[in-house]
Amino acid sequence: MKGKLIIISAPSGAGKTTIVKHLLQQNFGLEFSVSATSRKPRPGEVHGKEYYFLSESNFRKKIENNEFLEWEEVYNGIFYGTLKSEVERIWVAGKNVIFDVDVVGGSNIKKFYGNEALAVFVQPPSVDELKNRLRNRSTESEEKIKIRIAKAEKELEFAKKFDVIIVNDDLPKALIEAEKVVAGFLSGKNENDKI
Ligand code: ADP
Ligand code: 5GP
Questions:
Q1: Considering the entire predicted model, what is its pTM?
Q2: Which of 92, 122, 158, 172 keeps 20 to 30 A from 16, CA to CA?
């Protein structure tokens, strides 16, 4: 069986992981596409749950073997990518796939799957608010936050390439909007082929 695909992309700190977790709790038959990364796990992160944590050499080997649907060196020396085997694993289980990937990865997945995929861009209310959220999340050093903010400023320009933009200012409202667009897409009511 071939399921559908929901892509949630945003600059780091905009709230995509929060939205993805919420959508997974709804009754949409969604399963999270576990990405691979060469970054180190944060406290509490588990191999095979948040990510497949690979060494850089293992990651490079998989690139050479053409095992990725898309991959990127998101930060200097740190690789992230979606394994082709993830989509297969989830479809074989009879589920729809949900991706939490950065904006370039998200647009690449959308290009590949076209109408089978819904590409959602989560927009923060402002860059300053993004900084606040990353500081409050306390998962990155101040230096890493600076790198993420510099990247975010470029990423915001990608919003128009996505099927839907959700501004995540008031979280409960953003969650309801996300539920609505996903429900509409899964029931086949959305027109979405901008990319
Ligand atoms: P991302 O996955 O895009 O990096 P997260 O979902 O981890 O972002 O959210 C970044 C931080 O901001 C988290 O600590 C999260 O709890 C918080 N957050 C998410 N949405 C909002 C919101 N609307 N208002 C305030 N804080 C938020
Ligand atoms: P983090 O290290 O905060 O978990 O993620 C850093 C960035 O990498 C985020 O913007 C996240 O969306 C992105 N990312 C996570 N998985 C993938 C992936 O499979 N492909 C791409 N291109 N980016 C990813």
A1: 0.91
A2: 92
